[in-house]
Amino acid sequence: MSDALYFNGRFTTTDERVLTVEDRGFLFGDAVYEVFKFLRRRPVFLAEHWRRLSNGLRAVDIANPWDEHSFDASMGELLQRTAFHDGIVYIEVSRGEGERAHVYPDGMTPNAIAFSRRFKFPDAAKKERGIRLVSTDDQRWKHCDVKSVNLLANVLGKKKASRAGGDEVLFIDGDVVRECGSSSFFIVKDGRVITHPLDVHILPGVTRDRVIEMAVDSVDQRVIAKRELDDADEIFITSTTQGVMPVRQIDEGRELLRGPITADLQRRLDERELLVD
Ligand SMILES: Cc1ncc(COP(=O)(O)O)c(C=O)c1O
Fold first, then answer.
1. Rounded to two decimals, what is the model's pTM?
2. Smallest CA separation from ligand 1 atom 14, residue
3. Helix (H, G, I), strand (E, B) or coil at 116
């Protein structure tokens, strides 16, 4: 499928092959990525995605090809060039290209790409039904706060979940529940909404932040022990593409129905997404 593609300051379509085999994102996973959603051709929470992308690039010493103004302008034009109204934009900034060597020269020129994609966001039935998680040992690197393209552990974890009939993988580190393969993780207990604190073990999810803002008086950001999964009142995950999504079952554990706090957060997030300009 041919979609609008931004490449280093110019616009083309995904039919054009723009990267070479010497791109360090391909060779080393030496790149940071971002995904935002757009509705009616308007980006959702773009400033927050920009902030996370900038922080990630800074953390791994990759030059940022944009400032916030040129980023907004580039994404705005990409959406104008996109043939459909609702979808996602995938952005990747690699350190650049050059002869394969682990040690990179200073001052490399980054490669920046962004392309739009159609995406089927969950409908009302799926938002009520929820998803199944399959747990696995967290074997990711120790900088999960950076949205790096080093996703091998996530890829293998998600495949394991899929083979077991699940929709998403849940990473558990010893006794501690971290997050999912491409979503943040929450439990609800006695009216409290509980999620892992921001640190190197999880990605600072943009949707996670929105949920924390919306439920601010009843949120606890603290480590969740594995045993707490057995008697949580509600469980849900959050992400740009899934919004707030109830969890119906983890592994072979008991079946849960969507709870009232999850349903309320879903409704409020949907409203917020449409308010965004
Ligand atoms: C590991 C991980 N955690 C959480 C999320 C959710 O982040 P966001 O709400 O910004 O989409 C993602 C999104 O891809 C992710 O990859």
1. 0.97
2. 182
3. strand
